[in-house]
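Hey everyone, long-time lurker, first post.

I ran two proteins through the pipeline my lab uses and got sequence/structure pairs for each. Pasting them in order. The first:
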Amino acid sequence: MLVYNARGFRAGAGDVAKAVADTAPDLALITECGSRRHLRKFARGMDMEYSAGSLFPFARRVRNAILARPPWRVVTHKVHAFERSERFYPRGALVAQVGRAGYRLSALCVHLGLSSGERDRHAKELGDLTRGLTQPLVIGGDFNEGTEGRAVSWIGERYWDVWIRAGTDTGETFPSRDPTARIDYLFVSEEVRIESAAVVRSRGVEDASDHLPLVADLDLDA
């Protein structure tokens, strides 16, 4: 699985795809996914299919996307805009059911706000969104705060932080050229077994976005 803030594909959707294609994820949770045209080009470069909400250019929309590599597919999806989010840069979660033969997974692609008060509210809304979901669950995205932040801590008390369970170093993802902060996360429910987690530092990835991608190997047979 890939978790990535693509910065609207400002570096070029094709070049961004080349920078991360070797990770070959079955699922990708993408924040700041830009326009539908750019997202479509990125998905093509990744050999994946994408799902997102409305992505009209210049419209103030939640710009999160979930990509799936066949035979995985996004069965259903909906956009949840966080309440009292930034007017000019709305934040939210793309909530999807993802599946293949014999498997179903709930996936949330998340982008939290810039202020601590916003993020606290957003974390509570995530709790409401996940309440009652019975399938294995993954929550990933740009949380805009470090590991001591209240929103991250709140989510971490309820779901496994993949990096804490299986990461191999300190896991900083921002800024990409000289990362000093871990602000991109992947959390999973207890039904998901975590095999490994890594920050991608391959050639070209530092220029592809101001965030580094997070990748994880997960097992749903647990």
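...and the second, right after it:
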Amino acid sequence: MRTVEELLTMATRELPLLNEGEEFIVKELFKGYEWKRFPLKDRLLLGTLFLNEVTQRRVAVTPLGKTSSGQQKYKKN
């Protein structure tokens, strides 16, 4: 089982693969079957930690607001 910190590292390592201006949610930075294997509490914490990384300007991403399902949407700068 991976720690939430490891999941955050995995997510931020995927960012260079995105095109500038591309919009995404954190879930999309993982393969579908991987995401489903993470416990819900870890997925929620990962979302919070990722938003914290973005707001502290540690990654070149802009938060765009929530989707209709309540997930935070981002745009790569």
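Reply from user beta_strand_b:
Welcome! Quick read of the second one: The first strand starts at residue 23 and ends at 24. Residues 10 and 30 are 8 Å apart (CA to CA).
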